[in-house]
């Protein structure tokens, strides 16, 4: 009787082991799990997802484009999500202070805090709707790629490749902005609040009635004199477009909308939250399309 310890292996079994070893060598070391990233707003989360690619797992908290982000209240489940993040992205500028409370609630976690307003040198009184400023978007994307590379040094080259692709995808948007500026710089417009202010400035539009906009953004009632000025600009057709925040409807904005339409002034509706399933670039391109269409209408088209 032969001893089991000296039993000869079947050739096919040996071949199987050899093939497994070859495949393991060719595959290289297993890739680490994606870096958990939490963004306060979907717009920053989408950009992070484009730059981070498969190296990150992004969760965005404010993801409902039909709700008013100024009325958002964080929940315990949001806190648990933030507590598991390695990088937390916030807009800053007083826009999403609740994210600071969530990150400070758990002293055991110390995620990298990437606050866009700090990256771009935002100061009190500046417009906090930074996603409508392509320069701020470029700065954020570059900073995010670097933060990820510091935590995943072996993925730096891949992150930089995706960053270059993302930055290149903004060039057509910049070209459209430049073309609009060449044609419409100095054209007077009005707005219910300054959500689109960064883009309006980039196009060179002459924004009127900004005191009214600041009051609405800060949650206070505009002064009667400011209301009268804005309504006079609409009824007197002193502006070419009225820009309205589609996520903060109120009797005040409804009245402005009615006055503008009665005067034949086009109303451009913009939002603060990126619609689900849409890329940042496509969202901005759509807003520029609608702006171009509104500005192209003759002042007395109504």
From TrEMBL:
GO BP annotation list: metal ion transport
Listed InterPro entries: Bact_metal-bind_prot9, ZnuA-like
Keywords: Metal-binding, Signal, Transport
DNA repair keyword on record: no
Signal peptide interval: 1-32
Domain of life (superkingdom): Bacteria
Subcellular location: Cell envelope
GO cellular component, one term: cell envelope
Keyword Metal-binding carried by entry: yes
One of the record's GO molecular function terms: metal ion binding
The protein, known as: Zinc ABC transporter solute-binding protein
Species for this entry: Gluconacetobacter azotocaptans
